[in-house]
Each structure stands twice: as C-alpha cells, then as structure tokens.
C-alpha cells in the first residue's frame, strides 16, 4: 500500500510501544558516527561500548532483526527478555527464515529456496539475502556470521539475550525511567491529533514540521500497516523498523513498519488549528531570529539535536549571562525546548514546528501582500463555523464532533470562557463548562481541554489553568 500519497484508511496508528522504543534506541548505537543529529544519549552510550559489542549490535539489528521484533502486547523490556528466553530456539530461527522466504518471493517473483537449504548452504543463504534486500545493504561478512548462528539456534538465542540484557541493565533502564512519561504523553497527544483522512506525508509534517524523507517513504513502501512512535533518541532524524508479525499463529504473514520520530515536548497539538499569525506575533518571532548569536545557537542545535547550556556557552565562547539571555528569548518564542536536568543543568532542543510556522507566515505575507491579524478576522465567518454546534444562546450542543478540526474549534470556544492567569478547581471548571453547554458530561469536555493542551492541571487534578497562547 502507498501510505505516502493515499489517504489513511485506518492503517496508520500512533503508539507508545516501550519495547519497540528500546530496540530502536539500541539499533542506533552502531550508527552513531554515520547518522549525525542523533541524541547525545546515543553518542555517549555508543562511545562506552567495546568494538566487539558494537559488532554484535550490528549483527543483531541488521542480520537477525526479525528475531527481535516484539509482540505488541509486551508491557515492558524485562518481560520481553523473559519471553524471548522462554521461546523455543528453533521457533526463533523460523522468525528469521520465514519472513526472508516470503520477501524473496514478493521481490523477485520466484519461488524461495527451501528452509533446509538456507540453513545448510551458506551460498544459498547469502544469495537469497542479497536478492531480497539488494546490493546496497548487503554485507557478506556480517551475513556469514548470521548464517553460522542460524545453524546453531541455541547459541543464537544466547547471543541475542546476553547482548540485549547487557544493554538494558547497563545503559537503558535508567534512561527509560527518565523519558518514559514524556513519551507516553507525546503518544497520547499525537494519537488525539491523528487525522484519519490524512496521508502519511501530511501526518509526518503535522507532527514534526518536517517533510517525509524519501528514504523513509521507500522503506515503508511494502508495509501493510504503519505505527508512528515518538522517540527521545532519533534527534532530528526518522528511523524505520520493518518487521513481520504473527497472523493466525504463523510468523511472517504481515509486514508492519514502525516509524520513530522525535519532537520536543513543547509540541502543542492545539497549535495545529488553522490560525492566522498576527503581525505583532510575526514581528516578535522574526525579531528573535534577527541576531547573530541566536542564529548561531540554532545552527549548533541543527547539528547536535540536544545540547547542555554549558556546551552552548563553550561553543560560542561568550559569557554565561549573555548566552542565557539569548536562550531565554528563543525559548519564549518556542523555537527551543528547555528541559531541566540534574541540579541546575538545562538542555535545549530545536522545535522544528515553530520554525516552520514562522516560515509559513512569511510565505503567506509574500504571497498575499497583507497579513490579516486575528483581531481583524470577520466575526461572522467564525460564528458560521461554530453555529453548527451551538444553540441560539451560544450553548454547546454537540460533543464530540466527527472531524478533528471541528473538535479543536469547539475546544477553543470553550477555552474562551476561562480567564488567563487564574487557577480553577475541578468543580469550578465543571460548573463553567455546564453553564455554556447542554451536554451533561463535563468530565469529557474537561478532559478534551486538557488532552488538546488548551488547559493544564496539577498531577492530582485539583487545579486547572489556561495554557499561555492557547
């Protein structure tokens, strides 16, 4: 299926998938020098691995990848490792060979070699892999190593488990504790913002502010389903994990592509609504960029994905107070995401979405010659859109609407009844919502305001407030 240009027919999903997330991060380790722009965690972790460990990593995540593809219901990585260890070693080998045979048939239109010959004849195995995946991705030495392990399934299983257990315990378990809550939150936000009628190209742009790379489009071309997974470690790149899944007890029947992408947690789903940027906002955003130091900071982050404040200070050779002032201005315009680390340390990442939004506003200005401000938008046009969902007294009568855009329109309307800077109890939020709706389910509306980032709340739900700029 061509997901790039065809509309989503329910085959594109967003998921959290902690096990897939971990495996993708592990797969990046041996690519840290070839793929610039990955997160500092990948670079630092890769530098701590021995050459032997990096070679085993290549072997597992290139030549034996299908053996690693997890089931979707795996709750966490320790559980995944346990189940992988309990699996019959010969079934594990089958997870590699059956998808290989099926892909060979699909891509060559020829009958695949029998499994027996793939196991016993190294030349047959190498020729099958080469014809299936192409010359560009073929590493004969690596595939010979893989073939040796395929001849001894128990040793293959031990090698896989030993390597994954080491990576999990020594590098990733603590890191996962640090990032999992933010990734879970991102998954929920992206799930809520996924438009069922959008193409993959449109979805990726809406989620990241970047166009779908051609190599990603090619990599998912044969997939029957695509899962979009927020990652903390891909930096400004996207990666793909294509693997076969069980169908009615048989491994290798369905190809599923998982696309991993990173976007700073200041991504605001509510900003996807088609608002027009006012002249004052555009002037402020362009003013923030009209400085050599701030442009240098942005340039640094395009190459390194995430940097500590001290690293930026050292790279620019400026005083801490000067750099802090420039960082603060870029953060206030949401060009950067600021994250507090251990102690007083802060790290920074680019927000490609807000850079793209500014560029789009400049393009609109050049094309139209004038940029109408939000204050000059005709009120009647706005009311006409909303009129379908409210009665004559302005009370909401419909929730939830079928279309994503209508949902954001309604939530924006409801948010307008709350005062900026004021804290509301849950009871006060419910009362205000019920005052302006005929719908009795205030909890659903309150949840919508929170999930779509019009309002924020305390972790225990005791207080709510409008998000600045919502």
From TrEMBL:
**Is Transcription regulation one of the keywords UniProt gives this record?**
yes
The organism's superkingdom is given as Bacteria
Gene3D superfamilies linked to this entry: Winged helix-like DNA-binding domain superfamily/Winged helix DNA-binding domain
Q: Cross-referenced PROSITE patterns, in alphabetical order? A: HTH_ARSR_2
Entry keywords, A to Z: DNA-binding, Transcription, Transcription regulation
Could you give a GO molecular-function term held by this entry? DNA-binding transcription factor activity
Q: What is this protein called?
A: HTH arsR-type domain-containing protein
């Amino acid at each position: 299926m061509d997901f790039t240009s065809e509309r989503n027919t329910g085959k594109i999903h967003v998921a959290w998938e902690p096990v897939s997330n971990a495996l993708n991060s592990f797969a990046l380790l041996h690519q840290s020098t070839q793929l610039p722009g990955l997160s500092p965690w990948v670079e630092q972790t890769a530098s701590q691995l021995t050459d032997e460990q990096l070679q085993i990593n290549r072997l597992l995540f290139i030549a034996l990848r299908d053996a690693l593809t997890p089931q979707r219901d795996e709750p966490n990585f320790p559980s995944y490792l346990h189940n992988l260890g309990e699996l019959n070693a010969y079934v594990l080998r089958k997870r590699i060979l059956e998808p290989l045979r099926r892909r060979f048939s699909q891509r060559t239109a020829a009958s695949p070699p029998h499994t027996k010959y793939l196991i016993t004849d190294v030349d047959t195995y190498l020729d099958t892999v080469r014809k299936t995946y192409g010359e560009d991705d073929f590493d004969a030495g690596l595939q010979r190593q893989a073939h040796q392990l395929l001849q001894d399934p128990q040793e293959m299983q031990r090698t896989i488990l030993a390597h994954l257990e080491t990576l999990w315990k020594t590098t990733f378990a603590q890191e996962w504790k640090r990032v999992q809550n933010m990734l879970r939150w991102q998954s929920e936000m992206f799930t809520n913002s996924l438009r069922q009628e959008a193409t993959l190209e449109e979805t990726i742009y809406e989620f990241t502010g970047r166009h779908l790379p051609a190599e990603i489009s090619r990599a998912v071309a044969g997939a029957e389903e695509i899962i979009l997974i927020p990652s903390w470690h891909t930096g400004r790149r996207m990666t793909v994990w294509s693997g076969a899944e069980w169908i009615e007890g048989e491994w290798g029947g369905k190809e599923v592509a998982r696309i991993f992408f990173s976007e700073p947690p200041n991504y605001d789903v509510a900003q996807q609504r088609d608002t027009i940027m006012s002249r004052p906002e555009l002037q402020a955003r362009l003013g923030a960029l009209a400085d050599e130091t701030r442009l240098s900071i942005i340039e640094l982050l395009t190459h390194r994905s995430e940097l500590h404040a001290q690293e930026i200070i050292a790279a620019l050779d400026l005083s801490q107070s000067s750099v802090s002032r420039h960082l603060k201005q870029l953060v206030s315009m949401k060009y950067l995401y600021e994250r507090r680390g251990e102690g007083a340390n802060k790290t920074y990442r680019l927000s490609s979405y807000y850079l793209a939004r500014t560029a789009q506003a400049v393009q609109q200005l050049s094309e139209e010659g004038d940029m109408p401000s939000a204050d000059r938008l005709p009120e009647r046009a706005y009311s006409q859109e909303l009129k379908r969902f409210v009665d004559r007294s302005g009370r909401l009568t419909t929730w939830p609407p079928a279309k994503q855009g209508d949902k954001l329109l309604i939530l924006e309307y409801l948010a307008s009844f709350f005062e900026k800077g004021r804290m509301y109890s849950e009871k006060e939020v419910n009362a205000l919502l019920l005052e302006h709706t005929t719908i009795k389910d205030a909890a659903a509306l309150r949840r919508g305001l929170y999930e779509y980032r019009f309002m924020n709340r305390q972790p225990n739900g005791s207080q709510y407030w409008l998000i600045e700029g919502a």
